[in-house]
Hints:
Blueprint: H1 4-26, H2 35-44, E1 47-49, H3 52-60, H4 65-75, E2 77-78, E3 90-95, E4 100-106, E5 110-118
Parallel strand pairs: 1-5
Antiparallel strand pairs: 2-3, 3-4, 4-5
Amino acid sequence: MRTFKERLKYYIVGFGIDLIAVFFFFGERGCAWLPENRVKNTIAEKEIIYGDRIKDVMKCSNISTNDIYNLLNNNGDVDFSASFPSQTPKVYVFTGDNNLIASIALYETYSELIEVKND
Length: 119
């Protein structure tokens, strides 16, 4: 039977080789496979449009387009319980740190901001 130090040495060498293999195969992948990140990436790939009614609501509520983009990119979380991903078009609700809520409809070629609230 081998000593504990020899077994530990083999374990560490094997673990190191596995770490290198994992970095080689999955190094630049990130966490884009998570549902929230997939939704955000899909929206980011498309043009986001909004109508005059949404512009008026944003103006009255002191919400800028930068607030919406920050909600979609950094600060916001997808509220899957309030979203409708099985209907056509898919509607996702984003909630932010500053009580900003935005609903976005996903179409094949573009995304549409359909509701904005600032509670």
